[in-house]
Design brief:
Blueprint (H helix, E strand, L loop, with lengths): L1 H35 L5 E7 L2 E4 L2 E17 L4 E6 L6 E2 L4 E5 L2 H29 L5 H27 L1 E3 L4 E3 L9 E2 L4 E18 L11 E6 L4 E9 L9 E11 L8 E7 L3 E8 L11 E7 L9 E7 L1 E6 L2 E6 L6 E5 L9 E4 L1 H17 L13 H26 L1
Parallel strand pairs: 1-21
Antiparallel strand pairs: 1-20, 2-15, 3-10, 3-14, 4-6, 4-9, 5-8, 6-7, 8-10, 10-13, 11-12, 11-14, 12-13, 15-19, 16-17, 16-20, 17-21, 18-19
Helix pairs in contact: 2-3, 4-5
């Protein structure tokens, strides 16, 4: 009985060891297979970095204003008696635009004029008596003060009457009337806008980092969303930078502009900077922003695969400069001749395998073929010298060129 029990325990132990060993063997084999399995190559689009001329510029958004543009308001309230303009009319400087009822002020002025006349007569009479020694000098002075006070009263009432008349402070185009005949308006109520559109200006802002690049007199180009174009020059730069937004305010006067521009319109402003030479510019899609900085993916041969090297990515951190249209200036991190990925980065990782698209592969194949054609042919007795590094670098491009050629033929057959 004991022997059977011991034998059963031994058999169960062997079975357990076998199961555990099999599971360990299976896990190790699976891990080994996945470790040796290479990730599939990701197709990408690339460009070859090269130096060239770069016409940088500073871009901003701004607002169009008239050189003279105001909102006409009422100084003294009352009932509107006259409205002497229509919307979009051309008005001249000093033209009467609106009158407010001033009947009360006119009556007060008549009373003030009568008091002034009486004060003048009293002064004349006291002066005559003073010359004959009948009136005291203090009486003459008092009569003189009364006359001066009466004149001031008349001037005050006349000023109140003038406030009831709204005149154009300058010539221009007047807007839509905001008041109607017979309407009661209060002090400060707006009646219309007045814009002198013969000269326009644009106000915009730029980051404080760009302040050293701008100066008065620089040329600007203005474009509206409707396609209207204009050009001008910078006339003023705010000496104080806004401590909240860290922006510097700039004003430019437009010398040549289309009739499609109107005060208050949204426009895009570009300040042209001197042309630079020897600058590397890449499509903006090539540069990826992250918390660690801007970077790009460069395509290089896989040095770990020997003669059958494929293409892999290499993450390179870069420093960028100004942007223009869809291009961005790269000041550090990329050298001329580097092949930079411009599309398909969302599936990439540093060191991951990639394949070039048909256009990029054909371009690389054409480049290699051109280099071969330019290489002088060696004699039969001469032994050609081949640089091993060049051989490694040419394997992957040649393979991709053949793939591109086959894909092109297949497409033509279809």
């Amino acid at each position: 009985m004991i022997k059977r029990l011991i034998l059963a325990v031994i058999v169960l132990g062997l079975i357990g060891v076998g199961v555990v060993g099999f599971n360990m063997f299976r896990d190790n084999m699976i891990a080994d297979i996945f470790a040796k399995r290479s990730a599939p190559a990701v197709p990408v689009s690339t460009v070859i970095a090269d130096t060239g001329k770069w016409a940088p510029g500073l871009e901003a958004i701004g607002t169009v204003y008239a050189a003279q543009g105001i909102e006409l308001s009422i100084e003294a309230g009352g009932i509107v008696r006259e409205v002497n303009f229509r919307a979009n009319e051309r008005v001249e400087k000093g033209q009467v635009l609106l009158r407010i009822s001033d009947s009360i002020e006119l009556a007060q002025k008549a009373a003030a004029l009568a008091a002034q006349q009486l004060a003048q007569q009293s002064l004349d009479r006291v002066t005559s008596l003073g010359e004959r020694g009948v009136a005291a000098s203090s009486a003459v002075q008092e009569a003189q003060a009364n006359l001066t006070s009466s004149k001031a009263q008349v001037q005050q009432i006349q000023a109140q009457i003038d406030q009831k008349v709204i005149k154009a402070p300058f010539g221009g185009e007047i807007g839509i009337p905001q008041v109607e005949l017979g309407e009661f308006v209060s002090t400060g109520a707006q009646i219309a806008t007045l814009q002198d559109t013969s000269t326009l200006r644009v106000d915009f802002s730029l980051p404080e980092q760009q302040r050293p690049r701008i100066e008065a007199g620089q040329q600007v180009e203005v474009t509206s969303e409707a396609g209207a174009l204009a050009s001008g020059h910078i006339t003023a730069i705010e000496p104080r930078i806004d401590p909240v937004t860290r922006l510097v305010s700039i004003r430019a006067e437009l010398d040549d502009f289309d009739s499609g521009l109107n005060p208050g319109q949204f426009v895009r402003v570009r300040i042209s900077l001197p042309v630079e030479d020897g600058v590397i510019a890449l499509p903006q899609t090539a540069v990826i922003a992250s918390l660690y900085g801007d970077h790009v993916y460069k395509v290089v041969p896989d040095d770990t695969q020997g003669d059958d090297a494929g293409l892999v990515t290499r993450q390179v951190f870069v420093e960028t400069g100004l942007r223009q249209d869809d291009q961005v200036e790269v000041t550090q991190g990329v050298a001329p001749g580097d092949r930079i990925i411009i599309a398909g980065q969302n599936r990439l990782s540093n060191g991951g395998p990639v394949t070039l698209t048909v256009a990029a592969g054909a371009e690389m194949g054409d480049t290699l073929q051109t280099k071969e054609d330019e290489t002088p042919q060696a004699d039969a007795n001469d032994t050609p010298k081949v640089n091993s590094a060049d051989t490694d670098n040419a394997v992957a491009p040649d393979t991709n060129a053949n793939a591109a050629s086959k894909a092109t033929k297949a497409q033509a057959t279809k």
